[in-house]
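Quality-control log, excerpt.
Job 1 of 2 completed; input and output follow.
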Amino acid sequence: MGMCIAAPEKKLGYIHQVSDSWRAFLLLSLCLQLASWTLVIYWSRSHWNNHPISQALQAHIQPSHPSWGSVAANMNTEFRRIDKFATGVPGARVIVTDNWVLKVTTYHVYMALQSECHVTVTESQQHQLSPDLASPAQILTFRVGSINPAVKPFDIRLNSTEYPELREKLHVPIRNSANVVIGHTISELFLETFRAQVDLNQPYILPSGQEIEPCIGCMQVPANTKLVRLCHIEGSDDDSECQQCFCRPMWCLSCLGRWFASRQDQQRPETWLSSRVPCPTCRAKFCILDICIVR
């Protein structure tokens, strides 16, 4: 019908006058329409039970979720939470919730239950995205399999810088079958050194009767750090720029380390450990010697 309007000189509206090639084109168009509607009608039967996504959901039916609709409702509930892990381009999104590993592509949704799946690193690729980058980007490929025979294995890809966040969200161990070396970012190396240095500092004894609250940064682990001005005791410099912080323990060591790193000159990582940053709560300046683990 569109070609009848776009090319009226062809007189395509008169089927008996057109050539065999145009008749074949019309037959192909009608067959595509018929096949498409037949497929849609087949999918919609029995409340869309034959649709590929609903069939993938049916593989996860359990006594607690007796239908694929309840499985989808549970998945939607977890997807709305802010603590999920999500990455990837719109055509291949990777989402990890408390109980699900999802890969959302343009035409399908791959899913695996965390309690039934196993994740394996299968490949690593180096990409020099631009000459300005200090190091190339490392893209990791993971194979997500399941002990459920109805769930087909699928691959997910993400940057190595996102690997620690993925590992933290997954409840299953990640295997490395190809002996892939996963590179550490500067921030990860700094956090390891940061933790080691803080462990050497004097601990802070929590007063009796005071309760430890959850970290206000991640709200997942207890706040286990306290800022106490100790650098004037550790060193001989009495003119230290550090200030006394009177905040109660409010941050965990990981969140405080990330805050410390985020306030540094990213082009000069060699100065990070010797720098001073403001307290994220009261803005009193402190250095790494002033961070005490709460006992």
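Job 2 of 2 completed; input and output follow.
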Amino acid sequence: MFPHHREREQPIFSARAHVFQIDPATKRNWIPASKHAVTVSFFYDANRNVYRIISVGGTKAIINCTVTPSMTFTKTSQKFGQWADSRANTVYGLGFATEQQLYQFSDKFKEVKDAARLAREKSQDKELANTALSIAAPQYSQDVSDELQSPPVMCVNGPEDKLFRSQSADITLSAEKERIKKMLSEGSICEMNLDAELFTLQDSNTKLVAALHEANANVEQWKKQLTAYQGEMGRLREQVSDLEAHGGHGPSDLLKDELTQSLEELEALLKAKDEEIHILQSKKVEYHEMEHDRDEAIHRLRETEMRNAELERRIQNSEQNLNNSLEDRDHMDSEIQRGIEILDIKIFDLNDLRQSLVKLIDK
């Protein structure tokens, strides 16, 4: 049975990388698992206390690896690292754009591996405690449980005659259950992909907001400097005009050259500041585009959650229908058993009557 409510796994770290898998034939060559860089995320399941590495391309899970304490992430070059997954019987390789991204992923892998080790130790302690309690329990409770769980064998006039049981309803419900389970799995993969994308967008959004605030502060400062430079340029131009009007020579020519040079430097600085302001304005446009992408990702995530809720509702209905069918079948079995018992009594009575008639005839 599926749980009526499942708390979503939460992404705790994401990075962009090219994903590779080892060639199962040669165990040497790498086979690309993605055509381009994809998001590789660490997820944490609070209900099961499990960490997983997940990467989704479209609707297909490229990486679905549960982190265990025995795993080790090895950096084989400045931008490439790998680890082995014994459960999937493969080796994953990740190629990053920068060396810094590789070190960040390696540090997070080690941190998650240590957390998985602590979680396993706690789980083992709990299992030992449960084992001790089960050993102390009375032995006959297991025998009673076995008797209750073993189904009764009903025979009519011999062990080879079995009751007819309708299996078509079970097969139909099982097929419907598997189909809904598959749909829910696909919805979960899409939901994880959107979670990772949303996590990445939120991280980028935070960085852009900080950069935008810093840029706005710099723009205000540069505007004040620009106003001061413009006033200084105006004053220098007036001095140059006054010098040209008086038409002096000697030291005035040297002063004129210095003022002209200062004016050119201020004009170059003013041009550089204008370019920086233009660049900041373009970054502001990119920030708005990122906000739009984030809103779209949130909208798609909500739609996926609604679809998952609908799938869970349909699963609950299917489970209820299956339980009702099982109850009806049990009720039918009990009615058949009661009819068999009545039939056995009638047959026994008829057998007694036949024996009485034979004895009467013999007399």
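Post-run check on job 2. The helical segments are 99-136, 140-149, 168-246, 251-362.
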